[in-house]
């Protein structure tokens, strides 16, 4: 991929878009796809572009999307207004540092969407770097220096900003013979500089790929890190660990037990998401087998945990429910995962292509000590589009954004025609086709 990157926002044009529905105490599961009511997908018009890496700000007004294409990478920022549909650019373009950077391969926003971190894991032949921008007077301005990796680190494979945008975690899974490391920075406003916060957090052994996924709590004090190929013995079981910053000793300490995969190729830690206060975490293993006999490999798995801090000297992460398994081969359930602020709703992407579905997404709510599906499954529109490769849920859990990096309008799986798209859904009352119930409805 050669070329530049750009970031801009879109403001919706006036029309009659529906507003959010209320939180429901009942939930239903259905095999039908969610309805598109006055909704418009965000996509590129030219071929060989791949749109679909995105994140939502917690106030739901901002959405960041990135495009890969034959000339390079683009990152786009969109602003949503509740009274309108359509998208209008906001802010100037942000250019990539150099060709083949893959700028925008990972992105993260602060709470209100005023600050964004854009990663380029392939910068300088795989060294990788991350840049952070603020929107001031409709212009994107970089703050601080480029945060560069070392050697072939793939520094920026994953990124996460705290709510205030003053702490930034960056994963570099290829560091030190693929052991992987995670680096955390704090922004000093007076000197306009990013300063390392504590020592690097390394994986446990070679080939762990630790840092493939990272997630900060809202205040930046807790950090979840995934190592999807860890576990030793080339088993690819994977693990995830949560760390807490010790202000008195200026270091990151592991907080609670290690969350390990149980089976061969479980790849636990391929994606992770902490809730607002860091008391709940969702951990995914997208290559996880469906059962202990290793049948239906690559079906995927997501499990959520809650902090048990009854003994402050020995905090523990305990499972919330049985977890979620993919139900067929190559479903890749957990390719992406996100959790809302309270931690009672999780969004899961399954980007695989069983039965030519093009991928799917689903949302679950914690009700009476179990996870219950909220609304219908949401399916991709075309074969092989990778719907669910990325997913983001709003703070209140009433909106999700889902990316399809291989969408191509023709409904085939030919890479050279990929344009990609992102779709946004609200959980609202749906009165189309005689449903008359709450469901996920495409908006914007």
UniProtKB/TrEMBL annotation:
<feature type="region of interest" description="Disordered">
    <location>
        <begin position="1"/>
        <end position="58"/>
    </location>
</feature>
<dbReference type="InterPro" id="IPR011043">
    <property type="entry name" value="Gal_Oxase/kelch_b-propeller"/>
</dbReference>
<protein>
    <submittedName>
        <fullName>Uncharacterized protein</fullName>
    </submittedName>
</protein>
<dbReference type="InterPro" id="IPR015915">
    <property type="entry name" value="Kelch-typ_b-propeller"/>
</dbReference>
<feature type="compositionally biased region" description="Low complexity">
    <location>
        <begin position="16"/>
        <end position="34"/>
    </location>
</feature>
């Amino acid at each position: 991929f050669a070329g530049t990157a750009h970031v801009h926002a879109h403001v919706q044009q006036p029309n009659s878009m529906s507003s959010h529905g209320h939180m429901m105490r009942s939930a239903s599961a259905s095999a039908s796809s969610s309805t598109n009511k006055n909704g418009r997908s965000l996509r590129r018009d030219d071929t060989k572009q791949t749109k679909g890496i995105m994140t939502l700000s917690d106030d739901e007004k901002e959405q960041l999307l990135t495009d890969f294409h034959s000339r390079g990478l683009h990152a786009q920022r969109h602003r949503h207004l509740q009274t309108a549909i359509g998208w209008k650019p906001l802010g100037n373009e942000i250019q990539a540092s150099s060709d083949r950077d893959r700028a925008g391969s990972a992105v993260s926003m602060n709470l209100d969407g005023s600050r964004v971190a854009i990663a380029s894991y392939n910068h300088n032949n795989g060294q990788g770097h991350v840049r952070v921008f603020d929107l001031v007077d409709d212009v994107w301005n970089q703050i601080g220096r480029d945060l560069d990796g070392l050697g072939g680190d793939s520094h920026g494979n994953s990124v996460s900003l705290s709510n205030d945008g003053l702490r930034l975690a960056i994963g570099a899974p290829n560091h030190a013979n693929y052991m992987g490391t995670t680096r955390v920075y704090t922004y000093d406003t007076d000197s306009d500089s990013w300063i390392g916060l504590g020592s690097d957090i390394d994986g446990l052994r070679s080939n762990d790929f630790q840092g493939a996924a990272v997630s900060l709590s809202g205040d930046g004090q807790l950090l979840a890190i995934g190592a999807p190929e860890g576990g030793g013995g080339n088993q690819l079981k994977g693990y995830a660990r949560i760390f807490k910053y010790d202000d008195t000793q200026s270091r990151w300490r592991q907080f609670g037990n290690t969350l390990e995969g149980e089976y061969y190729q479980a790849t636990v830690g391929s994606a992770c998401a902490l809730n607002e206060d860091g008391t709940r975490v969702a951990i995914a293993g997208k290559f996880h087998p469906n059962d202990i006999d290793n049948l239906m490999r690559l079906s995927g798995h997501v499990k959520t945990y809650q902090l048990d801090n009854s003994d402050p000297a020995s905090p523990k992460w305990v499972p919330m429910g049985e977890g979620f398994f993919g139900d067929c081969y190559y479903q890749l359930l957990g390719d992406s995962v996100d959790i809302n602020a309270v931690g009672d709703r999780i969004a899961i992407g399954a980007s695989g292509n069983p039965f030519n579905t093009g991928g799917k997404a689903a949302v679950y709510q914690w009700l009476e000590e179990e996870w219950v599906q909220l609304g219908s499954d949401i399916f991709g529109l075309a074969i092989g589009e990778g719907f669910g490769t990325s997913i983001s849920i709003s703070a209140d859990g009433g909106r999700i954004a889902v990316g399809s990096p291989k969408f191509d309008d023709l409904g085939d799986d030919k890479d050279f025609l990929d344009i990609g798209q992102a779709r946004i859904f609200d959980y609202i009352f749906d009165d189309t086709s005689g449903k008359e119930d709450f469901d996920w409805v495409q908006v914007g």
